[in-house]
Design a protein that fits this description.
The protein is of the alpha+beta class and 128 residues long. It has 3 helices and 8 strands. The strands form 2 sheets. Strands 1, 2, 3, 6, 7 and 8 form a 6-stranded mixed beta sheet that branches. The chain has a two-stranded antiparallel ribbon with strand order 4-5. Strand 1 and strand 2 form a beta hairpin. The longest helix is centred in the first third of the chain and has 13 residues. The radius of gyration is 16 Å and the shape is globular.
């Protein structure tokens, strides 16, 4: 495996193409986090992927009713094509967004490997 390859919990090997971490509530000058603000944060994050496939993992995303965990992490993963019996595609991709309280406990590969999602059920095939 090369340094960007990550083995998921189900054994699937993916390549990390992009990793971004941001503190979502930094810079708030007026008001407090609420559902409307959180929905806008998530919507704006999805729009940045220009209509490409995005999986938003919301399970355990909130620390309270109106407060998302303070760190939003986005990754872009690629792998071999999914269910490509006719060999029409060059690979598959999936963009994932999730929220965290901490970024120091685990390495990037462990953070991604520990996510609960079905790459083969969620990813989209692409061709060059």
């Amino acid at each position: 495996m090369n340094y960007r390859e990550i083995k998921l919990a189900n054994g699937k090997v993916v390549t990390l193409e992009r990793f971004k971490m941001e503190f979502i509530y930094d810079g708030i000058l007026v008001g407090k986090p609420n559902k409307e603000m959180n929905d806008r944060i998530i919507s704006d994050a999805i729009k940045k992927f220009n209509q490409n496939k995005v999986l938003v993992l919301m399970n355990d995303a909130y620390t309270s009713e109106d407060l998302l965990k303070p760190i939003m992490i986005t990754v872009g993963l690629t792998s071999q094509p999914i269910n490509d019996n006719d060999e029409m595609f060059d690979g598959s991709y999936l963009n994932i967004i999730w929220f965290s309280n901490d970024f120091k406990t685990n390495s990037i590969d462990k953070m991604i490997a520990n996510l609960k999602f079905d790459y083969e059920g969620e990813a989209k095939n692409y061709e060059f």
